[in-house]
Amino acid sequence: MKEELLMRFDEAYSGNVFIKSHPTYEDAQAVIYGMPMDWTVSYRPGSRFGPQRIREVSIGLEEYSPYLDRELDEVKYFDAGDIPLPFGNAQRSLDEIEKYIQTLLADNKIPVGMGGEHLVSWPVMKAVAAKYNDLAIIHFDAHTDLRVEYEGEPLSHSTPIRKIAEHIGPKNVYSFGIRSGMKEEFEWAKENGMHISKFEVLEPLKEVLPTLAGRNVYVTIDIDVLDPAHAPGTGTVDCGGITAKELLASIHAIAGSDVNVVGFDLVEVAPIYDSSEMTANTASKLLREMILGWVK
Amino acid sequence: MKEELLMRFDEAYSGNVFIKSHPTYEDAQAVIYGMPMDWTVSYRPGSRFGPQRIREVSIGLEEYSPYLDRELDEVKYFDAGDIPLPFGNAQRSLDEIEKYIQTLLADNKIPVGMGGEHLVSWPVMKAVAAKYNDLAIIHFDAHTDLRVEYEGEPLSHSTPIRKIAEHIGPKNVYSFGIRSGMKEEFEWAKENGMHISKFEVLEPLKEVLPTLAGRNVYVTIDIDVLDPAHAPGTGTVDCGGITAKELLASIHAIAGSDVNVVGFDLVEVAPIYDSSEMTANTASKLLREMILGWVK
Amino acid sequence: MKEELLMRFDEAYSGNVFIKSHPTYEDAQAVIYGMPMDWTVSYRPGSRFGPQRIREVSIGLEEYSPYLDRELDEVKYFDAGDIPLPFGNAQRSLDEIEKYIQTLLADNKIPVGMGGEHLVSWPVMKAVAAKYNDLAIIHFDAHTDLRVEYEGEPLSHSTPIRKIAEHIGPKNVYSFGIRSGMKEEFEWAKENGMHISKFEVLEPLKEVLPTLAGRNVYVTIDIDVLDPAHAPGTGTVDCGGITAKELLASIHAIAGSDVNVVGFDLVEVAPIYDSSEMTANTASKLLREMILGWVK
Amino acid sequence: MKEELLMRFDEAYSGNVFIKSHPTYEDAQAVIYGMPMDWTVSYRPGSRFGPQRIREVSIGLEEYSPYLDRELDEVKYFDAGDIPLPFGNAQRSLDEIEKYIQTLLADNKIPVGMGGEHLVSWPVMKAVAAKYNDLAIIHFDAHTDLRVEYEGEPLSHSTPIRKIAEHIGPKNVYSFGIRSGMKEEFEWAKENGMHISKFEVLEPLKEVLPTLAGRNVYVTIDIDVLDPAHAPGTGTVDCGGITAKELLASIHAIAGSDVNVVGFDLVEVAPIYDSSEMTANTASKLLREMILGWVK
Amino acid sequence: MKEELLMRFDEAYSGNVFIKSHPTYEDAQAVIYGMPMDWTVSYRPGSRFGPQRIREVSIGLEEYSPYLDRELDEVKYFDAGDIPLPFGNAQRSLDEIEKYIQTLLADNKIPVGMGGEHLVSWPVMKAVAAKYNDLAIIHFDAHTDLRVEYEGEPLSHSTPIRKIAEHIGPKNVYSFGIRSGMKEEFEWAKENGMHISKFEVLEPLKEVLPTLAGRNVYVTIDIDVLDPAHAPGTGTVDCGGITAKELLASIHAIAGSDVNVVGFDLVEVAPIYDSSEMTANTASKLLREMILGWVK
Amino acid sequence: MKEELLMRFDEAYSGNVFIKSHPTYEDAQAVIYGMPMDWTVSYRPGSRFGPQRIREVSIGLEEYSPYLDRELDEVKYFDAGDIPLPFGNAQRSLDEIEKYIQTLLADNKIPVGMGGEHLVSWPVMKAVAAKYNDLAIIHFDAHTDLRVEYEGEPLSHSTPIRKIAEHIGPKNVYSFGIRSGMKEEFEWAKENGMHISKFEVLEPLKEVLPTLAGRNVYVTIDIDVLDPAHAPGTGTVDCGGITAKELLASIHAIAGSDVNVVGFDLVEVAPIYDSSEMTANTASKLLREMILGWVK
């Protein structure tokens, strides 16, 4: 009798995870996790609630992608919930994330992260870089995120790309869609051979992808690469961005290329500004396409 | 004295109907009606309140279309209010709608429907097909709506296009903008010769229209063919859709073609998600253009 | 066939009027009308959309009042829609309203108004005072509305009670719940023998009602007499007001007294600030109780 | 290494359940479950999303109740997630719920339900009544919920109290706070000896409780017993209700009485109308107090 | 005269200021001012609160434009706050604005206005035309704004472009993006040699700009030239507009041309409809680009 | 030192000001300042935007209090804008606030603070305690705020009352309206002779005030002492609070007592949750009453 009930419990739990996530960790190819941190944000906080809301609305998704002609059943991904992070303590939070990812990588899982503010990508990328020494970063964002510090604070949501660029070499970092940053950031990128495509994403991406053929790549997407019309639910909206259609096409371009995606994340969804739940719904569809296109 | 007051009452009633609607049924070319039903919706309900809100915001419309160089005064359409539907009973609601449309058609009125969920289009299309035996369907939507049933329920908002396709033959149904559905639905369409344009609307429509020249056509538009950026106020948002500009151009392409539009509807506007009233305003403008372009 | 359809049209129209409103003007005891004007408002406009929204949500009302043990079927009231008002022109709008009410009164209808800003009550009260020379005004509001002018403008939403008080004599005006106004307004009221109950409504009302026994009374309710917690959807929120429960009890106190209510209104519902539709729903219930309690 | 990670997974899952819920079913005293159904609602749907949102905001709760001087650690309750319900099929949904509760009761767990629409309480109460033959129902609500059917449909959110009253005898049902219903419902209750306290809750409850001393009691709370000011996030708001403070006091009155609470639920939280997340937050606190006060 | 104006500046300084605005009036090249007027609006008012909200969100802007490779520090602009306008009195408000601008122009400041409704641009353009006798107007808008009057009122938000066109000659006025207006307005424009680009902005602008080389130009932007997806926070949303990306490109096209911008404004931002603060954020970025691109 | 502070005032003056604030610092009795900090908040951040929004809506206030029969002109208060705080750095922010208050006190100004999170009150109270050695604290709040630390962090919004209680002695601190906290916090208060009135405010306050006659008192009000119905716009809503009416009465009770108010603040207004601007409007009225009642 209890067996039957518990079986039903297992089904029931499916409401709390990303749609169609695999029931067990052991045989999963990829692991989804939330990083509910937003404590270094300068403008409008709230992205700590992003991962849970993305899971909640994922029940509205179809399981089949007509773009990729593939169904979620064809990939095994385990939704491990949110990483418990020490509230307000950025350094310890980043340490927790790094250790967590190290374990995933040791178990040969592809890490699939949901933010939280963009700084959470830094320890993930560091851990991934420790495993793959030819790693390249593909970065979609409205912002450079190349600051050394923000108002004296080296742990800031404005710094993660600078940190990874210095860690693996700026020539291995490719940013797309950038339309906001300090003059110094753009100059630093230029002087150090880092790739920045201002304003545009799909066309320059198609030019870059062949040069990365065969390499291991980590992809980090700040949802604000989208125009605010397409993603109002984020902290730092900045008009002049790309459409969701173009971002989907960019995901599919990577899927069709010869790069090897070894991890990825989608960050900065902030439900409190997402008055029609549009951004959470879009994020859940983007994740479906990334999983179907990149986890092979 | 009372005459004067009652005249004023008549004017006053104009606030409750679609802008510039004709005062009498008898000499109207077209009849607008709401179908306030949303009881088979799987994700986010609320479209039952769509028709009233579209009427309310229509007062903000100009009466002239610079696209078509035509004014609302040049068409006679009567706004008959919402069809009273038995709450929660899908079958009886559909029966009521079908009988209603049969009456309109017997009186040689062009039916102009406002949803409500998409299932309401099924009895309308069935009634129209009974009158015009060469009928073709033009369908704008994010979703295939080709399911046989949804979770065991044959009356579902996911099924209307399947029903009409089986009724008049799949080769007479043309879907545009589709970006969501089950693998089986896409396969059924392909195997049965139904036209599906994935993702795109305007270009494939321009290719299809000449092949329909001279035929009687019913057009059904699910507002979610638009990207959520353009229509947040609907139950099942799905990013990657077209812009309102492209949908307007598609309406105008039909207006400029040689098809004979014998009825049309616009469904799935759900005010509760429409935080800035954007979707209702857009729906009212789309209706103006459909009326001016299609009722000749 | 068409007869049947038109009958259905009549039913359908019921969605556009206050719930259970009587189908014909001639034999109605009371007439409901909207006064969609907000052009003299100083702080936050939007009440012009109030009457339509109150009608829309009235479909959620039960037809029976357990407070009064009476059903809407027991009263005949005709919903005449909104009075067409010349946008932006306060004087002409007020003239239109006054003529409209004169006609209603000549036909022996009880006027039941929905605002719109509070200034619309002034021409109504003036017309009512012309018919009943013993008229008293019962006024529920957060604000005195006793200004002579507002920033040089004698037609302002801050002035209607001053106007009627000067017209019928301040001793015949009874204000309740007042918690906002200029010092001069309170002083003028005191010096001229007008009744003002500051902050409180129900207790002082119970003391006043016996002194009005047998008199003809017009009741004007500004929804902002309620605390913002109970009526966020209004232009000028002012905390410290009464609860909806107390306002209901006050309506019932009048119903149980010996005054003769010859007209009434409910004004200043502004849907754009009414994020959960609470205020419109509350207004529709208040109107039900006023109709059931006061139209005998 | 993996052990450590999995332990962290367990912690992480705590973000998806009601705060401080016990990790295992076997030794839990009570079981929390969601019933995400809203398909028979007549006015404004959306309560199907209530249970998940209540869990989400429960992280903002303190674990200690200064009202009861008790901490959540002192009670063992297991959050089993949402019961998977067949969308749109009311009868099968109710059957699923009934079987689910039967299992819980067979395992001697106290059922703690979160709605969903009020109809979900019917199969729960039926299952509980099968176990406890002296069962009494305490019911807090704005609405009688005593209809035999709604527009011809016997499975409606307006009927659950009628069903249980007929099942266990109207004399065993005690309703409080009722301020809305059809005349026939109030009359049926009166004629059949059912207890209805109109408008008020705490005072009549205090009178009733001693008469129930020693009996097994199921408590069902429709959140709309609260005034809309205190619970805007529900489908059918109805002004004139009680405050959250009074509802808390009522919960504490039951806790301090001699009744034996054998199950309870809180229903009709609808996040889409809950613009400031007030209702979900309030619901989570009410649940904390019910658990601390009633699970002994 | 200037004393009086400067005194008003001090008062006005009670508004918060646009990011990085210069601390002193005397040595500023440009002066930013708000025109918080919305009293002639026919549809949805609220733009009076626009200027303050644009300033508030401007703190989220980067100070550097990667489009123009220029920083805000390179331009001296003084934010003078909102012009105090006599509420509800359109004529006196316009007179106040005209005098204000005359003083600015006498001091050789470039006027940078924030609306408020579009009618506020009329006295500004008149004052600018008095100084530059070769003045041309570049106008971005969804609406023609060419009415002679609106419902009998010559001071209406539908009239400013007609007024300036008659004042400086229709051949000197260039409108772009127009998609709404009366038939008569389009005809008047055509008959009088005024330039109207229907629907499109960037391409026709690029054709027009060379013909204006060397001329003094005033640019007036109604935010509703953007599609509602990009600017929901405005009174009269009208779908089918351009993207923020295209508007940015249009601003940059003017910056790169040989016209001499002698003043400009951005009007019709209405925060109450701007549920995610998207429109205010976009307006503040547009202003940054206009200042950096046009104040040389 | 004052030069530096005044320079900061000039900078700060970039904020709009509270209605009727005095134009000069020198002869002001009281100084209003914002403390836009929310970086130690555990649940929902956003109060950093509170002070500006309170100023913005204060234009809707009447200048006269019918409660106190006093006008704002009778008090001289200078609005110095927001204190510039180093983002994300709690310790430096608190140091800045403390120095700022020390300067105000040296100039014999009464400090009137607007938060921001509650932690900002700690350095203010410390500075005030340094001046008045008989200082008592009156504290209105839903939460004890008596933690020693929060998740290892001694600078947390849960700690300010503990800090001041340890600084001036727990017996000098009087908390009212408390309904949330850890068991340890309530115990610590009891063991150390600190006054805590659970749940209630006005009645216990009236008992306490006579015992404080003649003493210097600082009053700190967390807006969440109000029920969420009355103040949805705050981070940590907690139902069961008092009404705005009771809080007004409590302010007036202090005004009518023999205590000497030497400083006060109102904290935790968070506009992003304040969907109808109710909380900001209420906060601005509360401040008016505090200024009129307490600055003599």
TrEMBL record, chains A, B, C, D, E, F:
Cross-referenced InterPro entries: Agmatinase-rel, Ureohydrolase, Ureohydrolase_dom_sf, Ureohydrolase_Mn_BS
Domain of life: Bacteria
Pfam families: Arginase
Alphabetical keyword list: Hydrolase, Metal-binding
NCBIfam families reported in the protein's UniProt record: agmatinase (TIGR01230)
Family, per entry: Belongs to the arginase family. Agmatinase subfamily.
Identification of the protein by name: Agmatinase
Organism, as annotated: Lysinibacillus piscis
